[in-house]
Fold:
Amino acid sequence: MLNFLQANLKKQYLCHYLKNTMRIDIITVSPELIKSPFEHSIIKRAIDKKLVEVHFHNLRDYAINAYGKIDDTPFGGGAGMVLMIEPIEKCISKLQKERDYDEIIYTTPDAKALNQQTANSLSLAENIIILTGHYKGVDQRVRDLFITKEISIGDYVLSGGELAAAVISDAIIRLIPGVIGDEMSALTDSFQDNLLAPEVYTRPANYKGNKVPDVLLSGNFKKIDIWRENNAIARTKRIRPDLLD
Structure:
């Protein structure tokens, strides 16, 4: 199973080398909230190596008046504020005039949850827009007219979609060839084959009587592969049996 998966994903990886640098445009009410995750570690290195471009767009720059108005009360009454369609349309239209986009994503808790298969698919895109939700959400007409994919990161509500956009971006960017030093690492992560990853160990082989499984020290890579697959299946049955359904 793992060998088939790895061969399939390697084919997908080759597609990356035939296209331009990936570009992610993030539309947000709070750009200062989301920038930090892109300024450190693996994602920063990916940007520095020009494997990906990430651009932030402050929705207030497209406000309907000089006071920066981008939201209003919901029709029919009720608590909270709703992001208006006009500022969002202005921003998206401006970006679309500059380039074609493979996906326009909206981060919202009332959508299908992000999974590894979605991240794999999005990692093959060239240009992506991510619109971050805020307040009570966006005018439904935004979702009807502009959004091509809606993504949740879990069955809970955050103060805004900025952190969700960072999670989605990280899940995508780490799959781009060259971002992670050992590309096989990404191919053997949890969920790539609907299984959790097997247990991992490193030195020392014996820590206060707690020993590493002998097979991992045997040097017999065929047996090690079998152990890892069996271990992954056992862990999945114990922790996430729903994945096996």
Q: What stands out?
A: The domain at 194-244 is CATH 1.10.1270.20 (Trp Operon Repressor; Chain A).
